[in-house]
Design the sequence.
């Protein structure tokens, strides 16, 4: 069947080949341009992701630094309170169980005084 068409196609063969070559070139060019556009879009998306990641990282670092400062303050406060408590406990064994206010200390000291110290 093809051998019957060859005599008819033969005069147009250079044009057919040229048309086929142009079609292939145009299709290849379109594909290349489309791929370049897709690559540019991917690159833009990746850059946006990097920017978003960097912002989140900077924010996390800022929060971590703030928390570290707060934690150092709390540690210092805890250390001071612990030292104050040790000093209070070292003064008198009664303080081992509770911390008595100044008025209570006066009452406690007057109660501990020898009976002769109580004046009538």
Sequence:
């Amino acid at each position: 069947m093809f051998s019957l068409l060859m005599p008819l196609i033969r005069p147009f063969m250079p044009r057919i080949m040229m048309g086929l070559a142009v079609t292939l070139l145009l299709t290849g060019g379109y594909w290349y341009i489309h791929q370049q556009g897709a690559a540019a879009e991917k690159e833009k998306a990746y850059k946006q992701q990097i920017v978003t990641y960097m912002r989140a990282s900077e924010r996390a670092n800022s929060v971590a630094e703030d928390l570290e400062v707060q934690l150092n303050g709390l540690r210092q406060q805890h250390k001071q309170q612990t030292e104050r408590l040790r000093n209070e406990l070292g003064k008198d064994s009664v303080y081992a169980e509770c911390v008595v206010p100044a008025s209570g200390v006066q009452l406690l000291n007057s109660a501990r005084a020898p009976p002769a110290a109580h004046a009538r």
Observations:
- The chain has a mean pLDDT of 84.
- Residues 13-91 form the longest helix (79 residues).
- Helices lie at 2-9, 13-91, 102-112.
- The radius of gyration is 46 Å.
